[in-house]
Design brief:
Layout (H helix, E strand, L loop, with lengths): L4 E6 L9 H17 L13 E7 L1 H12 L7 E5 L30 E8 H11 L3 H16 L7 H17 L8
Parallel strand pairs: 1-2, 2-4
Antiparallel strand pairs: 3-4
């Protein structure tokens, strides 16, 4: 497999909380672990070599959740895959102004998995609630989002078990103690 490329964008308010190389390392590890044990054989997950990661604020993630998922509520992480549409969970049909256009446009390179967007303030709140560090929570959320890009889900107990196993493998490879997904 060729070299992985992780494009990282961090909102200015959060740039001093962590380093871009660390964020890339977390996303790369999740991409490698997820691709090595694909949830289904319909898509060759090992072909994915790149993705985009954004560390954003609550209002941005709330708006994206409302516009693209139909949920007017905060969330911790969103994943917009380049090869499969996400679920629209809102009432009725998606609004024509927002959801009809794809959120991301894959770059010209082959193997682009999609984009993961994390709300860092929500990450901090969840870390405090779960009694672990924001670093652990951020790694968990990035890994969770990347696995969604690769087709993992948690709609059934079996899917959730597979996704949690991949998450723990990725976190352990980063040297992070188990953070409950």
């Amino acid at each position: 497999m060729g070299r992985r490329h992780i494009d990282v964008q961090v909102f200015p308010a959060f740039r001093r909380q962590f380093t871009v190389p660390w964020l890339r390392r977390v996303a790369e590890r999740a991409l490698a672990v997820g691709a090595a044990a694909a949830p289904s054989e319909d898509t060759p997950r090992a072909a994915y070599r790149s993705l985009s990661l954004v560390i954003a604020d609550d209002p941005t993630v709330l708006q994206l959740n409302r516009d693209y998922r139909g949920l007017n509520e905060p969330t911790d992480v969103l994943a917009f895959a380049s090869d499969h549409a996400g679920e629209y969970d809102g009432e009725g049909t998606p609004p024509p102004s927002g959801i009809s256009e794809p959120f991301i446009t894959a770059p010209e390179e082959e193997g682009f998995a999609g984009e993961v967007i994390v709300s860092y303030p929500q990450c901090q709140r969840q870390a405090a609630e779960h009694g672990h560090s924001a670093t652990q929570e951020l790694a968990l959320l990035i890994t969770h989002g990347v696995l969604h890009l690769l087709g993992y889900d948690h709609a059934t107990p079996e899917e959730e078990q597979a996704m949690n196993a991949r998450t723990q493998t990725a976190l352990a490879a980063l040297g992070l103690a188990e953070a409950a997904p």
